[in-house]
Amino acid sequence: MDEEWVEAASLAQLRKRKRLGVSVAGRPVALFLVGDDVYALDDVCVHKQRSLSKGTVLNGRVICPGHQWLIDPATGRVEDRDECQPSHAVRIAGDAVYVDPRPRVLEEEH
Questions:
Q1: In this protein, which residues make up the domain named Rieske (predicted)?
Q2: What sign does the dihedral 65-69-74-77 (CA atoms) show?
Q3: I want to staple 55 with a disulfide (CB 3.0 to 4.6 A). Which of 41, 43, 50, 65 is the partner?
């Protein structure tokens, strides 16, 4: 495992509520369990600075508690908006969830 990856939580913790707010290298990150996949987004919404880990997951989308924006947990893209929530790469090793503290850079779609 690369040095910069941070152990953020256990799968057992995440399975309890399907979402979890954690700190990754001092950065607030929201973890989501969607089916068998784990995703990580910055926990502070780009729109109204609300905590995404207090939102819900419905039909594979994270719903922000501020204005119910729908966010793709895999990419951070906000449905029907130009905004994009920073997302983080996730790795699972045993029961541990590791998160890269550096947000991913998505290539512009053309």
A1: 6-99
A2: negative
A3: 65
